[in-house]
Amino acid sequence: MQETFVYDAVRTPFGRLGGGLSGVRPDDLAAHVIAATLERSSALDPAAVDEVVLGNANGAGEENRNVARMAWLLAGLPVSVPGTTVNRLCGSSLDATIMAARQIALGDADVMVVGGVESMSRAPWVLPKTERPFPMQNLELSNTTLGWRLINERMPAEWTVSLGEATEQLREKYSIGRDRQDEFAARSHALAVEAWEAGRYDDLITQYPDAELPRDETVRDGVTAERLGGLRTVFRREDGTVTAGNASSMNDGASAALLGSAAAAQVIGRSPTARVAGWGAAANEPQYFGFAPVEAADRALRRAGISWDDVGAIELNEAFAAQALACTDAWGVDPDIVNAWGGAVALGHPLGASGTRLIGTLAARLRAAGARWGVAALCIGVGQGLAVVLENTETH
């Protein structure tokens, strides 16, 4: 079995819904980060890439025709390189990373480009076909931006609640109050502002031409728990706690990473930044999707041969503050090592792009802190979780 390494990672700043990237097609966003990844490793002949694997959660709009293949071609790269698109909802690009790592480990590949893309602004409304032609009744469009749509009537109702209602049920189960959620969300913004101002993201970012953003568009200065406490809850509950302020937003963006074997360093022309030491997937009841990263990360750690006591950095996707708190409470980790450069509540969560963002940020954080081991994890709708363990190659 070959070892798998992360050689580089880059992403666009994440735009808000209807914001600075909303005028850009998702396949163009994906083509841009792929091209940027290869430009940053100029010694690498693009024809030497064995395959490109991209994640995308929607797949109903302009990215629908296998966006990995389309993006590679739109970037003007060799037609001889195959591509495939992965859909594991919010975990899509982390799944792409795991798939590529597995191919490299088995010796089926030496150089892989992975990543993900989502334009939630441009996600279409869809009109289902009717069972009979020429129906006389009115038909309803479905919004494909986020969450359940075109639900199978055989699916149990408790599984198909909205993501927000599911989070309310999760925070009830684990006794996570509104104050903790708002404090966590305010921390996410404060750390993101600090990281951007300190230049932490400079080497992880590629700007899309004619749509440049100074930073992730949903990051806000001066956010406090007190201000967030004044926001109305989003979901109709007398005891609701989930608000637009303590949940991730809907966003547009793309991310990519360059993976390879140890021997690939000569082909790529640079040294790796991190080793992919283990990965794990887990599943539970769909309404408790937010808690699935707990077991996924535990499995990844076991496969890497380490424990939580060894971990120096965690990148956990903040789909909701309550969900992230439930996971970190279960792991029993030091909160200071979780999302130290801000998380998705501040940075945004363009579904298919978030997994590779976590990988790039985690590798950079391990280097910056001189820590050896890190975990990237996220929750996934319909009750799943994924996690990857990275080892800092400077300490390997």
Examine the coordinates and then state which fold CATH places here, giving the name of the CATH topology of the domain at 4-121 and 249-392: Peroxisomal Thiolase, Chain A, domain 1
Text of the CATH class of the domain at 4-121 and 249-392: Alpha Beta
Q: What is the assigned CATH homologous superfamily of the domain at 4-121 and 249-392? A: Thiolase/Chalcone synthase
Strand portion: 15-25%
Q: How many helices?
A: 11
End-to-end distance: 17 Å
Stretches where pLDDT falls below 50 for ≥5 residues? Answer: none
Write the element-wise H/E pattern from the N-terminal end onward: EEHEHEHEEEHHHEHEHEHHHEE
Q: Tell the overall outline.
A: globular
What does this structure look like?
- There is one protein chain.
- The chain has helices at 26-40, 67-74, 92-105, 163-173, 178-197, 225-228, 264-268, 293-304, 321-331, 344-347, 354-369; strands at residues 4-11, 15-16, 51-55, 83-86, 111-119, 125-126, 142-143, 251-260, 274-283, 311-316, 373-380, 384-392.
- It is an alpha+beta fold and 396 residues long.
- The chain has a domain at 4-121 and 249-392: Thiolase/Chalcone synthase (Peroxisomal Thiolase, Chain A, domain 1), CATH 3.40.47.
- The strands form 2 sheets. Strands 1, 2, 3, 4, 5, 8, 9, 10, 11 and 12 form a 10-stranded mixed β-sheet that branches. Strands 6-7 form a two-stranded antiparallel sheet.
- Strand 11 (373-380) and strand 12 (384-392) form a beta hairpin.
- Helix 1 (26-40) crosses helix 2 and helix 3 packs across helix 11.
